[in-house]
Every structure is written in C-alpha cells, then in structure tokens.
Specification:
The structure is a single chain. By secondary structure, the protein is of the alpha/beta class. The protein has one domain. The chain contains six helices and ten strands. The strands form two sheets. A six-stranded mixed beta sheet has the order 5-6-10-7-9-8, with helices on both faces. Helix 4 runs antiparallel to helix 5. The radius of gyration is 18 Å and the shape is globular. The two termini are 29 Å apart.
Length: 254
C-alpha cells in the first residue's frame, strides 16, 4: 500500500520506537536509518509523534506504549501504529521507490475499489528472492472481515500447493488500532469497524521458483480482485541484496 497507511513516506515524520523489540536489529542503527530518510526519532511518545512502533505481540496494558498510543488516537491524533516488520518494510520501500522511480519498475493502478501496487526486481544469478504480499481491507463489519479472512486462506493454500516455504499472518483489527485508514484520516477505536491485515512472504530459492514468482503474484492479484474486490494490495519481488529481503531469506531458509 503506497501513499497511505503503513507504506507512507518516512520523510518529515516523527517516530517513537519502543525499546527492546525482538524483531529489530540494533536500535541505534534503526534510528540512523530513519533520520537518513528525513524522519525524526522522539525520546517519548507524545502529541508530536506521527508513527509509533510496538511489538507484533504487544498487548494492551496499563501505561504500555500500545495503550498510550490508543489513547492518543481516541483523542483524535493522526497516529500510525505499526510493528517491527512494518517499520522495516517502510524503510525498505522508501529506498526502493527512490531507486526505481527512473526505470518505472514500480507500478500502481486501481481496479474498481482495489488499489494495486507491484514491483519486480529481476533476479540475479545465484541470488535468492522473496515475494512479499501485503493486503489491507477497507474498514468493514466483523462478519465481512471473517468472510475475507476465509477467502485469504485460499491464497495460502495456493502457495502451499506450489511447495514453497512461506510466512504469513492475518489480523482482524479495530480500525483505530492501526492508523491505516484508506481516506488518510484516523478514526478513534471503534469495535464496530475492522480492518483485515494480511502479510505473506514466500521464499523463491530456486531458478524455477524465481521464474514463477511474477506468475504467482499475478494469480494472487486476480484472486483478490475477483473474490474480494476492495482494499489495498502490494506485491514485491526482491532479491537478497535488499536488506529486508535478506532478513526473510535467512528466516525462511532455517
């Protein structure tokens, strides 16, 4: 999702990163990378923050960063709440967009109510690749969220049928928990409206798998277009020269 939600630019944004997150490399390096991309890092969570990074397994608790962030959202602050992987994706996408703007390898278009963003970095000899797919629905009711979640399971079956190693997670979240509202505005915590957030990373570690990567991403796009028809879908095929891709190559190769 480019231009909205978790894929917004780092430039001119103030980040609060919760200390001690297991999924992040050295904290000082992360701060340097944010600043290099035009962002700022706040020492504490407050009204000046635009993005707060919490653990992927963070629970709401008294005085915890997630609880504090949700209170700010309830007060009307436009705040993005993301986890470690989403921060690394945001940093990587900022580099990618700059590097590929000239050769037009990043493509964005709309298919009805579905926004699709795709980038394919051609494979290099000897380099493994990953296909990363991110889907975020528009705000919907809980029954519709459950239906979409079941539909997305079919995508996982498609990958498993190809015999490819993968990592996936799918969350149903009240819209205020992540400031990824498609309109660009943030609503308060509302238990009647939800967002489906699905992330899928697939290892392409053979020549055949790398050749099939673009076909697989196209099949996923068509599946979402026909069976769901709304939301934001981002597909990326990177080789392991990209920091974020290398992290996933190592994790999925274990």
């Amino acid at each position: 999702m480019q231009g909205v939600g978790i894929m917004d630019s780092v430039n001119r944004k103030t980040f609060y990163v919760n200390e001690g997150l297991d999924g992040l490399p050295d904290m000082e390096d992360i701060k340097v990378e944010i600043v290099k991309r035009g962002g700022k890092v706040a020492g504490q969570l407050g009204p000046e923050c635009d993005v707060v990074v919490v653990g992927s397994n963070e629970q709401v608790g008294p005085e915890g960063p997630l609880e504090m962030a949700l209170k700010l959202v309830e007060k009307g602050q436009k705040l993005q709440i993301i986890d470690e992987d989403q921060l690394l994706e945001m940093l990587q996408d900022t580099v990618e967009d700059s590097a590929h703007r000239s050769d037009q390898s990043v493509h964005s278009f709309e298919i009805g109510e579905l926004r699709y963003n795709y980038c394919h970095v051609p494979p290099k000899p000897g380099q493994r690749q990953v296909l990363r797919v991110v889907y975020d629905s528009q705000p919907i009711g809980y029954a519709e969220a459950m239906r979409i979640k079941q539909e997305l399971r079919e995508i996982i079956k498609l990958v498993d049928d190809c015999g490819l190693k993968r990592h996936e997670n799918c969350d149903i979240l009240p819209v205020g928990w992540r400031a990824a509202a498609l309109s660009g505005t943030v609503v308060g915590v509302n238990d009647d409206r939800f967002v489906i957030s699905q992330r899928l990373v697939v290892l392409l570690d053979s020549e055949a798998a790398k050749e099939n990567g673009p076909n697989l991403s196209e099949l996923i796009k068509e599946f979402v277009r026909i069976r769901i028809g709304q939301g934001n879908l981002t597909a990326r095929i990177w080789d392991e020269t990209y920091v974020h891709a290398r992290r996933w190559v190592e994790r999925l190769s274990e």
